[in-house]
Q: What sequence folds into this?
């Protein structure tokens, strides 16, 4: 699969001739006519844009959220689960610590950007964008002030070079799965998270027009924030980005169609991770992961290759806009999504092994554009944990080394998400440069014990695990539900 994807990407780059040969026009000048003065250089255009935004929100339940709670990802699991002893469940008398409401206010989504253009270079029209907001890049903890909320965050910083049939973009921009022409218009700043992949990545993106309505895009990219990558714990315990240590850029290719009323695209993405870079090895036995005499440190480069598939469509007819977006794959943690990968030491060699988790994400949105001043809409998102691509046998794992790296699945607590559904109706009011959005968001996440940890009817444990949520009656299933009401005021400039 990896070779096929690399060949596709290579084909995109090879067939796009971005530097078209420029042939100077032939001119004839009379010896009796004065030479025409050269045209003055083009003047660079600078446009400042952005908006002032204020959010007020109420949650009925605690969530995994970001930056003052402005962005909620999913409702948290219960803290008062029944106690399981063998095949017996005993009720927990404690109250659920996550079943508490919150009311929040924030202005950190306020945004400022600069667009540049009006000049030419290398035979192409040049444009650029620099965009920031006050969202920060880390969360504060319990009011400690340790986060970076209210501080500037770099969103976009790129230069685009446009020829007749080709565009080359270099810099930081949306990840390949986030589609600027087809993304959720929710009032919640989550913009469809965790169903819609969200992040900004440094990249080199090449787009080639195949005709009036068809285009082919290829790109290589990396990840800017370690916190958005499913990086395991390194030998030194640091959270360094696992993608960087693979020394292999992530890559994507997309084939798109677009006319005035309809657009659709299919695409794929490949990503290589190196979760750990050092280990110990016994000089006598060759077994990894030991301690004491005879064990020396060695650099390692065991990789995990993941694949993501993408399809989306947008249709505008009779003053109604419909959007649909779906992704299927193995690497969404770096996009503020769910899932990740499992890691363990081989029972015989002690070497680290990695297995990716599969996941289906989808969302749809319906917007009424009959009125320019009042536009009702509804967003629906769904995702499903499909488990590991290959189930892990307990006999192949060195005791105490099996773990899961990612979001929504924890080997420490033994819990995993099964699926999540979100329904979010809203009404947007427009007046000049002002917008008021009112939204109700219902999020439902199903939790249960990890399949390999729940005993069978006879009390024995399963011999394999895929890190799916158990369907057993002993799996302590819990449906976490959050009702969120939000009001957002935006002044665009």
A:
């Amino acid at each position: 699969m990896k070779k096929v994807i690399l060949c596709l990407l290579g084909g995109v780059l090879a067939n796009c001739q971005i530097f078209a040969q420029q042939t100077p026009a032939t001119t004839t000048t009379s010896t009796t006519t004065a030479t025409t003065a050269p045209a003055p250089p083009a003047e660079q255009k600078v446009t400042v844009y952005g908006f002032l935004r204020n959010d007020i929100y109420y949650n009925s339940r605690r969530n995994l959220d970001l930056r003052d709670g402005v962005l909620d990802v999913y409702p948290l699991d219960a803290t008062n689960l029944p106690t399981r002893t063998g095949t017996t469940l005993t009720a927990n008398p404690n109250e659920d610590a996550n079943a508490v409401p919150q009311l929040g206010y924030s202005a950190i989504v306020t945004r400022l950007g600069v667009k540049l253009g009006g000049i030419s270079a290398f035979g192409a029209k040049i444009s650029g964008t620099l965009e920031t907001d006050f969202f920060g890049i880390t969360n504060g903890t319990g009011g400690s002030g340790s986060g970076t909320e209210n501080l500037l965050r770099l969103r976009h910083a790129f230069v685009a070079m446009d020829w007749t049939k080709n565009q080359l973009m270099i810099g930081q921009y949306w990840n390949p799965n986030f589609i600027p022409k087809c993304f959720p218009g929710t009032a919640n700043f989550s913009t469809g998270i965790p169903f819609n992949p969200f992040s900004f990545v440094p990249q080199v993106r090449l787009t080639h027009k195949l005709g009036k309505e068809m285009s082919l895009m290829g790109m290589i990219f990396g990840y800017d924030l370690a916190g958005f990558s499913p990086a395991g714990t390194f030998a030194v315990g640091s959270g360094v980005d696992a993608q960087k240590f693979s020394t292999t850029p992530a890559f994507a290719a997309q084939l798109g169609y677009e006319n005035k009323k309809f657009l659709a695209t299919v695409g794929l993405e490949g990503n290589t991770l190196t979760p750990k870079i050092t280990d110990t090895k016994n000089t006598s036995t060759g077994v990894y992961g030991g301690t004491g005499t005879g064990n020396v440190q060695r650099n390692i480069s065991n990789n995990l290759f993941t694949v993501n598939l993408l399809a989306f469509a947008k249709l505008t007819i009779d003053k109604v806009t419909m959007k649909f977006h779906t992704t299927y794959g193995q690497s969404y943690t770096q996009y503020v999504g769910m899932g990740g990968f499992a890691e363990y030491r081989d029972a015989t060699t002690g070497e680290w092994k990695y297995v990716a988790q599969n996941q289906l994400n989808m969302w749809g949105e319906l917007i009424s554009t009959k009125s320019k001043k009042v536009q009702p809409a509804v967003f629906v998102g769904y995702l499903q944990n499909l488990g590991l691509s290959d189930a892990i046998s307990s006999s192949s794992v060195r005791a105490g080394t099996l773990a899961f790296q990612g979001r929504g699945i924890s080997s420490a607590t033994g819990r995993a998400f099964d699926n999540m559904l979100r329904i979010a109706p809203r009404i947007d009011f427009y007046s000049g440069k002002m917008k008021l959005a009112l939204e109700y968001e219902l999020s439902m996440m199903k939790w249960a014990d990890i399949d390999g940890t729940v005993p069978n009817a006879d009390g024995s444990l399963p011999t394999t695990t895929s890190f799916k949520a158990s369907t057993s009656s002993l799996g302590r299933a819990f449906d976490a539900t959050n009702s969120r009401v939000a009001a957002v005021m935006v002044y665009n400039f």
